[in-house]
Amino acid sequence: MKVDWLIVGAGFTGATLAERIASQLNQKVLLVDRRDHVGGNAYDYYNEHGVLCHRYGPHIFHTNAKTVWDYLSQFTEWRPYYHHVLAHVDGRAVPVPFNLNTLYTLFPPRYAAKLEELLTGEYGFNVKVPILKMRESTNGDLAGLADYIYKNVFLHYTRKQWELDPDQLDPSVTGRVPVYISRDDRYFQDRYQAMPLLGYTEMFRRMLAHPNIRILLQTDYREVLDGVKFNRMIYTGPLDSYFDYLHGHLPYRSLRFEFQTRDTEWQQAVGTVNYPNEYDFTRITEQKHLTGQKLAKTTLVVEYPQIYRPGENEAYYPIPRPENRDHYAKYESEAAKLNGSVLFAGRLADYKYYNMDQACARALKLFATEVVRG
Ligand code: FAD
Ligand code: UDP
Question: Is the pTM of this model over 0.90?
């Protein structure tokens, strides 16, 4: 077989690039994935009870990037959806990100009002403050509040998820869920928030339904290298694996997902409930909140953080911290030696904690810069 491009990985990054190359450049693509489906970690499927489930954990689409929103809207209609999360703290289910409503749920009204006044005085209203930043406050009451939030919302959740304390990670990690001085209970505030109406897999199916794209599943790209002729390659898998672990294994975190179906219509008040302090799992998501399905039964997915063991489980998260960035840089310099004959992109290959829209934006940019201009 002869193609213009070999693309490794059919997730957001690989699928976006395959679609652009096929439709805009009229060039031929072979898209290879070792899994038995397209969509990468965003893959969804109907389980035996008819519930649309996310095999690799709950995926909620949100973006401020109009380019990404417009691009994906060619391949899917959307169901508007605002994600809400509650966390079990001190025996109550309270809104997360921690916001002014959370304050009033946990503390006596007069004390909550005092803290609200201090928060708005120090930071302003409608402002997001990362917990590690709030901990630096010199105001005694605010430092006390920061300490309470740190200990009750972040510390044990982060230890479960990463086996690290929040300050051992790049501040951007806990900064994803900042304290929000607002009455807005939503998990995200992005301009565009919605779920693909018929699911992610259907959206990917439409992206990839182009005569210039051939898809090969359940295949490691190394298996096709001898049989397929191609001009250039795009690789979206883990970078250390591409270079046969020349500089040792890059650290990633993994998860084990446990799906449970209950004989009840609804189990939780909101899409996700976090358990920062109890149990070995971090959170439980009820799929139907995300999909909007009306069914008599309901399916939950429970997330148990795991050490990543190459070959045994999946690399889901890069671990953002300085020493890992240095380690990654060694692989980056190997990649640079290839002089653009192989392009690397995606959450695994870039070793960046991308959301779906960021993976898509990265692919669109790579297309415009490296692919089109050659
Ligand atoms: P991936 O989806 O990982 O795709 C890479 C593909 O490459 C995989 O399918 C893999 O099988 C394939 N591959 C790797 N090596 C090889 C090889 N040697 N040969 C062939 N194929 C190979 N983002 C959000 O925006 N909102 C969310 O709510 C959200 N929730 C998440 C929850 C969890 C638990 C996780 C893990 C991620 C979540 N994300 C979320 C992030 C989202 O999954 C990623 O941003 C997105 O999937 C990245 O796409 P990608 O194409 O770069 O990588
Ligand atoms: N986090 C936390 N408690 C929470 C929610 C999040 O400590 O209740 C921290 C934790 O370190 C987590 C990070 O914030 O890994 C990012 O959370 P997010 O929900 O964005 O994680 P993801 O959905 O990517 O797994």
Answer: yes
